[in-house]
Amino acid sequence: MGLILDTNFVITAERDARRGVPGKAHAFLAAHPSDTFYLTFTIVGELACGQSASARRDWEQLCRPYPILPWTIEVSWHYGEIYRALAASGQLIGTNDLWIASAALANGHGVVTNNVDEFSRVPGLLVEAYG
Predict the structure, then answer these.
(1) What long-range pairs does 62-66 form, CB within 8 A, spacing at least 24?
(2) Which strand ranges, in their side-by-side order, compose the sheet holding 127-129?
(3) In sequence order, what are the beta bridge partners of 111?
(4) pTM, whole model, 2 decimals?
(5) At residue 32, does pLDDT exceed 90?
(6) Could you tell me if 113 and 6 are in contact, meaning their C-beta atoms sit under 8 angstroms apart?
(7) 59-66, long-range: CB within 8 Å, 24+ apart, which pairs?
(8) What mean pLDDT do residues 101-112 have?
(9) Which of the pair, 99 or 15, is modelled with greater confidence?
(10) Could you tell me the domains of the chain?
(11) I need a surface site. Which of 65, 85, 96, 118 has the fewest CB within 10 A?
C-alpha cells in the first residue's frame, strides 16, 4: 500500500523547503522511508492553481518527485459510492477531497493530510495526520 500526499501536505513541504526549515511534512517523510508516496490528478490540478507554482516549470518541479495517479473508471465508481454514503449521513466533503479519497480507495492507498476530520468520514479510507 502507498500513501497519497494531500495538497496541504505538498504545500507545507514546499513552504518549509523555501524557508530552509525542515518541518512536519519533511519529518513525516523521514519517518516513512520505505513507503511510496503519490499525488492524484486532482492534487496536481490544485497545485497548478497556487501562486508558488504559477510558472509551469515550478509546478512540474513541485510534482516531479511523486508518481501521479490518473483518473480511471474505477476512481469514478468509488467517487459515486463515497458520495452516496456521505450524502446519506449528511457528512459530504469537498469535491476535490472526494476525488482524492476515490483515487486512494481505487488504488488501495491511504491519504496523508492535515484535513483528518473530512477524510475520516470516508468509509474504509486509511487517513494519516502528518502534523
Answers:
(1) 62/10, 62/14, 63/39, 66/5, 66/37, 66/38, 66/39
(2) 68-69, 37-40, 3-5, 110-113, 127-129
(3) 4, 127
(4) 0.93
(5) yes
(6) yes
(7) 62/10, 62/14, 63/39, 66/5, 66/37, 66/38, 66/39
(8) 98
(9) 99
(10) 3-129 (3.40.50.1010)
(11) 65
Predicted pLDDT at 50: 78
Length of the chain: 131
Per-residue cell: 12: 507545507
Q: Which amino acid type is present at position 62? A: L
Cell numbers representing residue 110 in the block: 491511504
In the three-class reduction of DSSP (H, G, I as helix; E, B as strand; rest coil), residue 65 is classed as coil
Q: Dig out the grid coordinates for 94 from the structure.
A: 469537498
pLDDT number for residue 20: 87
Long-range contacts of residues 57-64, Cβ cutoff 8 Å, at least 24 apart: 62/10, 62/14, 63/39
